[in-house]
Amino acid sequence: MFFKTSSRRYAVAETYAGDNLYLKNLRVYNADGSMHLERDSLVIRSSYLCDLDTARETSANADFWWEGVSPGVHFLVPRNGATACIGYSLAALTAVNIGAMNLTTTAVDSRILNYAVIVGKTTSGRPFKILAHAKAGDILQLAYVEVFNSDGTRFKYRQGINVPSSWTYDLDNLTLSGGAAADIWWHVISNNVGYLERYSTAKMRLVWSL
Question: What is the pLDDT of residues 143-186, one digit of tens each?
Fold first, then answer.
């Protein structure tokens, strides 16, 4: 999601909704584009207010209210002139959507692995979608991974996977791999220079990135 705060700053975060609201990889920018703050994670409890400028729950200067109507029913309500919008809905990206795409991307430069949505098919033919970030230390963070069965139901799911420099990863088993069953390769050439590549018979495509 994208936000404009009540203090006229700008923010972006992975946003996961439950009875609590989970903001991950939160970045808040000043109006001139400089970084104001970063947080790996922030939890806003049901019916609490949030101030993104300080990255905390608050009772004053709130940017939004995580309004709890009933268990499982919540609304993000901007406050004090702040605004919010969905940048990309990963939840709306289904196995059917992935199956209809031309999966042709051969490599994704680390410089655009920034809230990057990547889809594909594993070496065993299962559709997958991942949200990826290139992190400090030449680590590839798979912030969100979902692998589907052929009928579109979920086969595997995990958040917060870190792939070290120049390792391959098996999405069917959610494990680091050195074998032919691997699906993606985090190919690091030098410090801060790398590519996310498909591996073996897997296919992939970059769909969206910030």
Answer: 999 999 999 999 999 999 999 999 999 999 999 987 889 999 99
The two structure tokens encoding residue 79: 């406050």
Q: What is the mean pLDDT of residues 6-35?
A: 97
Kindly report, residue by residue over 119-139, the tens digit of the pLDDT: 999 999 999 999 999 999 999
Provide CB contacts within 8 A for 44, sequence distance 6+: 20, 21, 22, 23, 50, 57, 66
Q: Show the tokens assigned to 13.
A: 């975060």
82: how many CB neighbours lie within 10 A of its CB? 23
Residues 6+ apart with CB under 8 A from 132: 108, 113, 116, 118, 140, 141, 142, 143, 196
Alpha helices (H) in 50-131, listed in sequence order:
95-99
Distance CA 1, CA 46 (A): 18
| pLDDT tens, residue by residue, 39-48 | 999 999 999 9
Residue 210 burial (10 A CB sphere; 0-12, 13-18, 19+): middle
What residue spans of the chain are helical by DSSP H?
95-99
- b/e per residue 18-40 (b: at least 16 CB within 10 A): eeebebbbbbbbeeeeeebeeee
Q: Mean pLDDT, the chain, as a whole number?
A: 96
* Whole-number Cα distances in Å, 62 to 18, 40, 96, 138, 177: 20, 20, 39, 36, 45
Residue 160 has, within 13 A of its CA and on its CB side, a CA count of 5
